UniProtKB/TrEMBL annotation:
This is MFS transporter. CDD domains: MFS_MelB_like. It comes from the Bacteria. The chain crosses the membrane at residues 31-53, 59-81, 101-121, 127-149, 169-191, 197-218, 251-273, 285-304, 316-334, 340-364, 396-414, 426-449. NCBIfam families: gph. Keywords: Membrane, Transmembrane, Transmembrane helix. SUPFAM superfamilies: MFS general substrate transporter. InterPro entries: MFS_2, MFS_trans_sf, Na/Gal_symport. It holds the Pfam family MFS_2.
């Protein structure tokens, strides 16, 4: 059965729906594969690139942090530039966004492999320059795939319930990649509890092949259905866009929430490597931690749709964040736990913030709709890139703060055994800091983000009415 089509050119401001098969499981599976492919390298970089640079390239943690900060800030700008570029392109036979995923995935994966190439015997300056250049290239190319991928959700279906399922499937894809990376990664990348250059390169190649396979599956299975009238697309102007963005309060608050969450999430990922490698003396326990984190998400998945239907996205995400904050705070006051006990308690926090991760992309489609409601412009790429900009800034801050924080607590890669002060500092970074940050996010989402369940339903109704009058 095909979608009911509104032909392009039917009227300015209208959305045209392609006469294609109805939205269904095939689309959800295809969208899952997209983030599955994205996160093979994203999670590898988030979890292990810092330790690769400190322990194999022998770059100081502080220098790595500054490098991450600079590169991620540029990535954030690249997101907006690429999103704007995408919105100025016309849709083709395969849609507006999907062709760019296909084209740019190959150079993206190649740049990811190059980050993990170690040339023995070079100077410290060479390693620093090589790390910075390859990381910068990878981050820029990541924008060229991730921006069209993220934007595509809003044109696959206009049904708000199905958009929530797309958000869930996207998170499932990320979790599957996390399962592969976090479970097999420590076993593959470390030899005798030490980072191994050859193993890192092998891992990058294997994960790169898997990433390309996932991108191709996404392009094959997912289908774009909704497109902006071609004549309207030409009339979009930057001044009107930014005027609309400034009025989009849901977007502004979700940007702040996402930036803050990314700082927290990336910091946790970076610090956990040192926590288990040095504090607990068991880097391979990270494999079990990755398995537990994935399990908590899959336990939460069947609960998301009924909970959101009853209470709303905002309400469910807020409750999960509060639970996670309280659990991290309790871990701070339990420094004597074994690695296994620590992971057991931590799993409850992971379960809590899993709900936020499972619905966050549905928040994004809501703010894209709100932008159309305020401006009359359908600018999926631009609005999504602004959202991605906030996430990249969060990643930049986390990368910079992570490296600086690890150095500040006294971590020294040259020492086989870290000082007591350094170990205590690492434990604090892994527990108390997330507790505070997650509490702040809870307060923002609860009291400042305006699209609760009732207002989201009203937005869908108002937007449908406005489109019918165009």
């Amino acid at each position: 059965m095909s979608q009911t089509a509104i032909r392009p050119g039917a009227g300015e401001g209208q959305l045209a729906e392609r006469a294609v098969r109805a939205f269904g499981f095939r689309d959800k599976l295809g969208y899952l594969f997209g983030d599955f492919g994205n996160d093979f390298f994203f999670i590898l970089v988030s979890s292990f690139l810092m330790v690769y640079y400190t322990d194999i390239f022998h770059i100081s943690a502080a220098a790595v942090g500054i490098m991450f900060l600079i590169a991620r800030l540029w990535d954030a700008v690249a997101d907006v530039l690429w999103g704007r570029f995408i919105d100025t392109r016309q849709s083709g036979k395969q849609g507006k966004f999907k062709p760019w995923i296909f084209r740019m995935s190959f150079p993206l994966v190649l740049s990811g492999v190059l980050m993990f190439v170690h040339i023995p015997g070079m100077s410290g300056g060479f390693y620093l320059a090589y790390a910075f250049i390859t990381y910068l290239i990878w981050g820029t190319l990541y924008s060229t795939v991730n921006i069209p991928y993220g934007s595509m959700a809003s044109v696959m279906t206009s049904d708000p319930v199905e958009r929530t399922t797309l958000s869930t499937y996207r998170t499932m894809g990320a979790m599957l990649a996390g399962l592969v990376i976090n479970v097999t990664g420590p076993l593959l990348l470390f030899v005798d509890n030490k980072a191994d250059a050859g193993r890192f390169l092998l891992g990058a190649i294997v994960f790169g092949v898997l990433a390309i396979s996932c991108y191709m599956a996404c392009c094959q299975l997912a289908q774009e259905r909704i497109t902006l009238n071609g004549n309207v697309a030409k009339k979009v102007n930057l001044a009107k866009t930014f005027a609309g963005l400034s009025k989009n309060k849901p977007l502004i608050w979700i940007l702040i929430v996402s930036l803050t969450f990314m700082v927290c999430f990336m910091l946790i990922g970076a610090v956990n490597v040192y926590l288990f490698k040095d504090y607990f003396g068991n880097a391979k326990a990270l494999s079990l931690l990755g398995l537990i984190q994935t399990a908590t998400v899959f336990i939460a998945i069947p609960m998301v749709k009924p909970l959101v239907a009853r209470f709303g996205k905002k309400e469910v995400a807020s409750a999960g964040l509060l639970l996670a904050s309280l659990v991290y705070a309790s871990l701070y006051f339990l420094p004597g736990l074994s690695a296994m006990s620590f992971m057991g308690v931590l799993s409850v926090a992971m379960f809590g913030y899993a709900f936020f991760n499972l619905v966050i992309w549905a928040f994004v489609t809501d703010v894209i709709d709100y932008h159309e409601y305020v401006t009359g412009l359908r600018e999926d790429g631009t609005v999504y890139s602004i959202y991605s900009f906030a996430r990249k800034v969060g990643q930049a801050l986390a990368g910079g703060l992570g490296g600086i924080a690890i150095a500040a607590v006294g971590y020294d890669a040259a020492k086989k055994v870290q000082t007591h002060e350094a170990l205590t500092g690492i434990h604090t970074l892994a527990t108390l800091i997330p507790a505070i940050v997650l509490l702040v996010i809870f307060l923002i989402l609860t009291f400042l983000y305006p699209l609760n369940k009732q207002r989201t339903i009203q937005l869908v109704s108002d937007l449908t009415e406005l489109r019918s009058k165009s």
